[in-house]
Structures
1.
Amino acid sequence: MTRVSLMGMEVDRVDEREAVETILDAREHDRGGVVLTPNLEHLSSFRTSPEVRAAFDEAELVVADGMPLVWASRLQRTPLPGRVAGSDLIWSLSEAAAERGRSVFLLGGNPGAAERAADVLRDRAPGLDVAGTACPRLGDGADDDAVLDATAARLARARPDLVYVGLPMRKTFHAVARLRAAAPRSWFLGLGQSLSFVAGDARRAPALMRRAGLEWTWRLAQEPRRLWRRYLVDGLPCAAVLFAGALRERATGAMRS
């Protein structure tokens, strides 16, 4: 499996089917890991935060959730097969896990979202073994350690094959770093808002907008106060830097050839 470098972030050159097979085949060999699904927000933080950079560098599988990453890879002539969105991967991986008799643990989301999402996934993937759900309330205080210790104890008892983590980016990195020791053979997937989508707490953009790379405009329209800075202040400048870097890489590659 090869990787594509985008502004220093190494992204695996796999499509959604290959990502599912990579995860479950590794689990068949008793290996765990971490899957991260970067978009422009992650890439922007990757450039400035050592913590974020370390999380991506250490992940076993990194797949492009954001379409700008796919476009940039094509622009620099190292094309990724396509977008592998966490909100799509949760469906295909759950169906494949059910077929292989693998278990999942749902972690995060709003209160009650993980339980509702578990019911929906069981309906979509008959026979899916849901090993447990949890909604740890993580803030920025000392209580986080106690919350994560309790969650780790639950994971150690449940021993799930897959852990879907539906927390904000930095909380995901912090939680996974703490929880992996409790379930070293599990695969932890940072899936952002996917549990809320599955549970019906939030609506995804129409398929046409997703294919066109305009899902961010849909989310911005839904939550302008919360997301305007993420997309307009941080995201757009990061996209400009990303595409400029892709053009430079393309020119450098042409000179080498």
2.
Amino acid sequence: MTSNPNETAGDQALLTFLAAQRDAVLSIVAGLDEDSWHRPVVPSGWTPAGLVEHLGGAEWHWFQGVVTGAQPEPPPEDEELTPYDPTAAFVSDLPSAEIIAFYRNQCAQSDAVLAATALSAQPRGKHGVPGQDEPPDVRWVVLHMIEETARHAGHLDIARELMDGQTGLGPR
């Protein structure tokens, strides 16, 4: 592999769009007070804290787990790992600073994977959801994360407007 395996204009455009969506997420939640950070404003019950934590977990899953094949660290002996429930509302009791740091860290780790991996490469790990096809290449993973991040940035946009009336936050 070369030092920059994603040199085509198309590859760079995808990486630029992914970075912009991540920046939008952080811009939308910037300035929220802790109460708003943990307050659900839609009937399904998710909170900004839970949604940003979910996005950090998605970054880990897709880039560390699926692209590189890494296995998650087991939880400490005194903690139980809660299985992922796709129907549960995304909530978290962690402070906003901790979740934002987690999200930024996961994005940085994802970027490190992408800096060393061609988008045409086949993932080394598995998504592992029964009945769903595995991603054919890293480019598919990047496209999926653009979609996932943009979707949840839109959710956060609406929540922010309902909480304090702020609109148009983040890069457009």
3.
Amino acid sequence: MIPPAPEVAVTHVRVRYKDTDTMQVVYYGNYLTYFEVARVEFLRQHDQPISEVNTKLHMPVAEAHVKYLRPARLDDLLEVRCWISEKKRASFRFGYEIVNEPGERVATGSTLHAVQDPATGKLIALPPWLQAITPVRPGTGV
């Protein structure tokens, strides 16, 4: 389990009825939504609200991976942890871990993001402000 640390953003999500299937288990695609919530909170916790980030650059998802470990169910309170697990010149990877109230891992995963100039759509190097808020957390690759 990834312990909370300054470079790990933590947010909580309550499983809503609309997130579940007929068995009251979270539908598999919703884990990517939970990852997005955590990613936006990561940026906010680093004083970069997504509304401001979008004016400076775009971060399209180039790859997404989810490993499902146990079901999350209706009304569960989930802790979603997010960090930077890899950085390259024009892309970076967020790592994620979702833990339920008893502290059991529900899912892990990652999303790879390109860094794109919003005006031209061309890939660009990570700007200094993004480099500064994205320290790679060692040993946390997913």
4.
Amino acid sequence: MSRKFEIMKALIAAWSAGDIDGALSHMSEDIVWHYAAAVAPPLRGKDKARKFLENFKSQISEVQWRLFDYAERGDRLFVEGVDEFLSTQGGRVAAPYAGVIEFRGDLICGWRDYVDIGVMDAQRAGNPRSAWVSAMIDRPAL
């Protein structure tokens, strides 16, 4: 297992435990994070990342973030996974995604998640996830 993947797994473990400081400890002060790369402008800086994570944490009660595969090239880690969580209203949301994570040393300095926000919004509204989304995410994680 590569160092970059180990760092990503540590970030996931911190977030899954509700430890925002632990998750942020793996990010550079000047991180540029595109939570939904094609939908919203990026978060710039660790303070913005903290506000985003605090807001998101207030909306969820359980996290099951899983990675299915990864690859590396230079300072980049490419991942495929599912961001799955239980909302505070009791709805389960599962969104497959791909991400590109850029490192400077052992810190994440750039992050682009490619996710279909419509899939998440539909599930937040109470609609069941589609059969094809289930097929994509119902497989063993690393």
